[in-house]
Specification:
This protein is an alpha/beta fold. Helix content is about 25%, strand content about 30%. The two termini are about 15 Å apart.
């Protein structure tokens, strides 16, 4: 069973629907025991960093997420779910993130006609040997993913970065550290390329 953590931050249904198209059962829940018992866990989300962390802490989900990751359960953060795994965000000064991984969330720079938030497709450049992208590194026809964000990750340890993109700055678009995976983009909205990422997440041992 895949547990999709429901902390009131939206974007759950699109993730759930993507897995449904693949015939994979999921459950959207904030129940601690169900999350801890899941074979895989996903932290999605759209919205503000500070508000999301407030909801997560109020529900005790920060401790649950830490325990899930500590026990080695494959864990996937999506969009805001990626950002929350890190230390802090310029969006919400003074609010501490989950600090599962080291890094800061910065605001995308304005200028040169760029619109903030970035909404749309952007090409990925692969780095390292990210397991979510196995087989994609040599595919020059579909290395595009769908983004909706105003803030981006600046990871302290670039060795965990598996994909980047450019949007006025080098965006750390995907990371992998042990059993923790995360994407700033939305794989559930990134066509067959994105579904392939979710399939590989399902297959990770």
């Amino acid at each position: 069973m895949i547990a999709i953590i429901d902390y009131g931050a939206g974007n759950l249904k699109s993730v759930e629907n993507a897995f449904r198209t693949m015939g994979v059962e999921t459950i959207c829940t904030s129940d601690n025991d169900m999350i801890l018992d899941a074979e895989r866990v996903i932290l999605p989300g759209v919205g503000a960093f500070g508000d999301a962390m407030g909801r997560i802490r109020a529900a005790g989900l920060d401790e649950v997420i830490t325990e899930v990751i500590s026990k080695g359960t494959p864990f996937l953060g999506i969009c805001l779910g990626l950002q929350l795994l890190f230390d802090e965000s310029e969006e919400s000064p003074g609010v501490e993130g989950l600090s599962i991984l080291r890094g800061k969330i910065r605001r995308l720079p304005e200028g040169d006609g760029r619109k903030i938030p970035q909404i749309g497709w952007n090409r990925l450049d692969f780095h390292g040997k990210g397991r979510l992208f196995e087989g994609c590194e040599h595919d020059q026809t579909e290395p595009y993913a769908y983004f909706v964000h105003s803030y981006y990750l600046e990871a302290a340890d670039e060795s965990i970065v598996t994909a980047t993109c450019d949007y006025g700055v080098r965006v750390h678009a995907s990371i992998e550290s042990g059993n923790v995976f995360a994407c700033q983009f939305h794989p559930e909205k990134s066509g067959e390329f994105g579904l392939g990422i979710l399939r590989r997440f399902i297959d990770i041992g």
